């Protein structure tokens, strides 16, 4: 599963509303995760009970879309923004294209085998049942290399299925761990000094880009609704929200928390690690929104998308 990559996990996490990801330690964040898990479990158990074909991947994606829609309705935000249509479109495209590609490849192989291999002695040797094999060869087992080929192909299918099917659970497991045990999982505690430096450099490069294009964040600020009023009675903040107006302050905070010679996240307290994750999510969200603005060049769009993905993947 780990060798298979984490692209599916990152794509699935990107489908979730940013506000809920920011508040994973809150009741709302944990309710989101367990709602997804319970919905998937109930649906899978129901389809298994009635003997219906079902896909856990499709179930999970449907649950995430449902959470995005519900969150948009409860908060009064845009349904289009809540669904993250870019990621939804990419995932639905892959779900549609993958079976077609598999059908074409499998159909082509069957056609070639029937055309050039049907009726040969090797085909007859492979397709004998154990009783026929024992009558002709005196033993029930197929030839050694045929057994090796079956074992290797079965192992390949198992690995590919596990690598693909397991990815979608990684993101959810990490969200649960972030909410329940933030000290060890809210940031990547195994990150090397090189990776931390790359993160800091990415933040600095993003700051330079905003300074070179000051009209873009201003345009984004005018499009975003104002943040809820902050309580002035000293009550501890329990709900966090992103707003592009705070981007430069967020960047300055990251540069303070990640000095140039930092080799590990260990020196940061648990609250600082949680704050760092929230800030990086907000910067990622702002970068992704900037890429969608009209007038942004294709090159800048690719740069901003890569920046947004880098923040999420390393934190």
TrEMBL record:
InterPro entries: Phos_transporter
A GO term for molecular function: symporter activity
A Gene Ontology cellular-component term: plasma membrane
Pfam families: PHO4 (PF01384)
Transmembrane segments: 31-52, 59-79, 91-113, 144-163, 169-191
Reactions mediated catalytically: phosphate(in) + H(+)(in) = phosphate(out) + H(+)(out)
Localization terms from the record: Cell membrane
UniProt record, GO biological process: phosphate ion transmembrane transport
Membrane-protein topology: Multi-pass membrane protein
Origin: domain of life: Bacteria
Family per record: Belongs to the inorganic phosphate transporter (PiT) (TC 2.A.20) family. Pit subfamily.
Protein name: Low-affinity inorganic phosphate transporter 2
Organismal lineage: Bacteria, Pseudomonadati, Pseudomonadota, Gammaproteobacteria, Enterobacterales
